[in-house]
Amino acid sequence: MQKLTNKDLHTSSISTNRAFLPYILISLVVSVVYLPTFTGSFILDDNSLIRNNRYIREAQPIYSHLAREDGITDSQGTRNSHTGYYRPLTSLSYWLDCRLWGMTPQGFRATNLILHLLTCFLLFRFLLFLVNDRQAAFWVTLLYAIHPVNTESVSWISARNNILVTLFVISSVYCYLKRWEGAISLSFIASVLFFAMAVLSKEFGLLVLPCIFFYNRFLSGKRRDISQELISYLPFILVLTAYFLLRKMVTGAWLTPSDAADFWKRVYFATYLVAWNLKLVFAPYGLHSFIVGYPADYLNWQAIASFCGMALLGLVLWQMRKNKLLTFSVFSFLVALLPILNIIPTSAVTLISTRWLYLPMIFLSLAATPFIGRSLKRNRFLTISILIPVLVYAGTYSFVLNKYLWHDEDAFFRQEVFHFNNYFYAGGLAENLFNSKDYQQAERYFKMAIEYYPGEAGNYINYSALLTETGRPEAAISLLEQAKSLSMNRKKRGEWHNNIGTAYFHLSEHTEALEHYRKAIVFLPDESQFWANIGATYGEMGDYDNCVSALNKGLSITPDSVQLRKNLAVAYRRMGDRAKAVREQSNSVSKD
Prior knowledge:
- Helix 9 runs parallel beside helix 11 and helix 20 runs antiparallel to helix 21.
- The chain is elongated, with a radius of gyration of 28 Å.
- The chain is mainly alpha-helical.
């Protein structure tokens, strides 16, 4: 047996270090760029889906998440409510985070960052497998890792589904490719498992199948009989069948419910949305939480320009059609864009969102890798001289977005309303100002929110709370009556009844208040504050037995509520039960 020399061992050590160097550098750069996320808080949907979601906070069997519809957060009273989204693995990841970190936003954000790094590491391996150019793969992966477009997916906890589905889609495709090119059969089993995890994370997981189909058409180095290829798809189809059956059982629908109207309008403007998304990737500036709709007319100059641009791009790609890697990348990118082109409409309030580009950008990265590789070989100094300023811009811009936009709700709302004139979030800014007791500014932005979005019931509901608190319950009732006919989900309808009940309570119209409070409970039976309001109303009416009963129901939901225990102590005192009053007063002090 040949003996290894010290020189051989030294060379082996250097080779190992070089192998890990790209991962170390990517981790360091990403950690610096995303440093502000570690001090960030819950924002927007994080509050309803995670922080205030009892299902995430409480102990649950892991398998039970398979029976949960995404966005349905209450355990009772929502059996007839549907969002149409089925993402149990994403929900499970939140639940596991809560077990690991507690209900701390920094912990959840750290998980998002770890998942993002894993996706970047996988992208590096994926590019290396297809292009076999280590340096080009590194530069392209680093750009993807710190691209400003990806900050929404990484820093906004509720956008995690985009990271998870991308991680599992690329894992599935990568394992399939490894097996198809001769790797061990375990790679194929892993590919199927990753596919299952992808579709259970987000609907975009379905894109695995067209991606492997395109690979077999354009890139595979081993041509097999068509029957072998079809057989390789069977396990994926079985997983897909099981997924749709589960989805149907849980959500009541095979697909996400959508409005089928204006189909040809959506098809017509698809190229407009493709151009919009390409602009975000290749000219990333002015990024924020977009609220974008269709142009006002069919002959809008932007729509016409997008047709011309896409036609020109199509002509260029046709000229380069012999470049199979480019063809695979472009086809996969367009298919990855398909779910966000609104041809099949979603419930989103916007047609454009940076978080939706997290997966499609993988395939743009693949298309760019050979180009970067050739540039490095032709003129390494010039190429790196261009890449470094681009990376510095991307990293700096991402850092700014992480610190001043996606950091916390106050920063987010102020940026959106003040800097971008995005009045869709004026109501959120007003609510924050209301909570901080800045009533004058809060009222200003509540009025602005209603002016720009008169159909959004939440703005009326929150504004009515301000009016009641500032001594104007009659105005609150009048405002809520204006909103009565607006579309509301169960949560908003419950809040509507609660707020109008509170306004009547302040007018000492207790019978009317109690009627609305009871209706609020029908919609949101797990809302302890509603039970507290019922208890307070019964107390004012002198019905202390019902008052105590309502307060105890509230405590069964929120046992640590100091206010409920104080109210209960007052009720017992008025009933003449001194012992129970002292007990509840003592409990309230211990909980305070």
